[in-house]
Amino acid sequence: MADRNVKSAKQLTFTYFSIVAFAIISIHFALLETTLEDFEQLNANNRLLHAKEIAKEVLNENSIQSIAIPPFTHAYIGREQLPAHLIIPDSLPADTAVELKRNSSDDTEFFIMRSELKIRDKLKTVYFLYFDDIYELSENQIFWNQAKQLFITFSLILISLLVILRISKRLTAPLTQLTNELESRSPNDLSPIQPPQGVVSKELLQLVTSFNLYSERIHQLLERERSFNRYASHELRTPLMVMKGAISLLGQSTSPAFIEKQRIRLLHASNEMNDFVTTLLSLTREENLNNLSPRVLTRDEMHNILVEHEHLLTDKPVSWSVDMRGSTVVKAPETTIKILIGNLIKNAFACTEAGTVALKITPDVIQVVDSGIGLGSTPRGDEGFGLGLLIANDICRKYGWRLNHYNNDIEGCTAEIILKTYDTPNESQE
Does residue 66 or residue 322 have the better pLDDT? Predict the structure, then answer.
């Protein structure tokens, strides 16, 4: 079940876009306010410095305490000459415009500048007061004009948000459709899914393809497990039946020779089961193959494998042979080799109604060559056919060998084990 605290793509898009839009509008307002303030300060400072030069000439020529300097400036000699309604800071920097406000409900802005001027050979403090009604009006007009532009910008951002939300919905709709399809499927349905309808992106197709490949791997693993279980059941059935039959026969006679015969049958069946289970378990656990001791395959070992499955040739005009050339060294237990070659021999015996089956062994290759029905056909009456190849492939893959099958030029087929060690484990070649 999805976490309720996790937001949808639409919600995330709205959240992130709102944050960006708010940041843009805030920065726009801040820049506008800062620009107007800086421009007003710069304008006042320049006008007051210009008024200072004019006042220097006028005050030296006339004995007056204040003068008006058109169009928007007044000069006052001494702090006591300043208008009483203004709140003047105790400390003012020299030749720098400072913004003031009148002591009233009116928030009209004044700028004041303090300068030291030499008037008729005396150094006096002169205050310059500046106020521009027209600039204040223009400033308000500029602000509201910018506010209109900001409103238009906000409207465009809002429209963009709606468009982006619509696009986001269309882009995420296939994902929602895909999620609904997967949720409605049964747990055992591993069939490939089709790309959803609507706007399908490259990334979505990659997701669908990857999901299908993953499902296919799971399906193959499940089928492999089922085949593995069928194979184990098939292989264990025969020794179990032998053991059951031998146990039932033990109660029918007290002859030492008869009892010994049944004991040997039980021992052989239990050894066969033990070898089989040991090999299967070895395929499921990780082990360092370098720790295995190399050993040489012997003719007797190969001969015994064929003899063990010779009952499959009952009433069949089929002969078999073992051809060993050179010394073949392997790093694998005898039980593993017995099951590996035994499965290939069983398939060859089952697929051959008449002719020959030859086990050919060289230092690098083991071949089982038959004159049977060839690849692509299944022998009648053998439910274990194909399951043996599954375990044979697993054994070869574990030990780094390669198992190949191919039809012969005239009749039958050849199962070939290449004993060369490969860096990459052998893939299934059933």
Answer: 322
Q: How many CB atoms lie within 10 A of CB 101?
A: 12
Work out the pLDDT band at 103, boundaries 50, 70, 90: low
293: helix, strand or coil: coil
Say if residue 423's pLDDT is above 50.
no
Same domain, 53 and 120: yes
Q: What is the DSSP letter of 73?
A: E
- Interacting residues of 364 by C-beta distance below 8 A, sequence separation 6+: 418, 419, 420
- Please indicate, yes or no, whether residues 329 and 395 belong to a single structural domain of this protein: yes
Residue 151 sits in the same domain as residue 40: yes
pTM given for the model: 0.50
Q: Does residue 140 share a domain with residue 254?
A: no
Give the residue numbers spanning the domain of 402. 292-418
CB 333 within 8 A of CB 294: no
Q: How far apart are CA 176 and CA 44, in angstroms?
A: 62
Q: Decide if 315 is inside a domain.
A: yes
Question: Residue 429's pLDDT is what?
Answer: 36
Residue 306 maps to which CATH number? 3.30.565.10
Of 73, 76, 57, 55, residue with least CA distance to 126: 76
Asked whether residue 151 falls in the same domain as residue 88, the answer is yes
Residue 347, burial from CB neighbour count under 10 angstroms (0-12, 13-18, 19+): buried
| Nearest residue to 330 via CA among 265, 401, 238 | 401
Residues 236 and 321 in one domain: no
Measured CA to CA in angstroms, residue 174 lies from 4, 80, 168, 211 at distances of 21, 80, 11, 15
**Prior bond of 71 cis (ω within 30°):** yes
102 found inside a domain? yes
- Count: domains in the chain: 3
Do 333 and 279 share a domain, yes or no?
no
Between CA 54 and CA 293 the distance in angstroms is 111
List, for residues 258-291, the tens digit of each pLDDT value: 888 888 888 888 887 887 787 777 776 766 777 7
Burial of 206 (0-12, 13-18, 19+ CB in 10 A): exposed
**Are 97 and 41 in contact, with CB atoms under 8 Å apart?**
yes
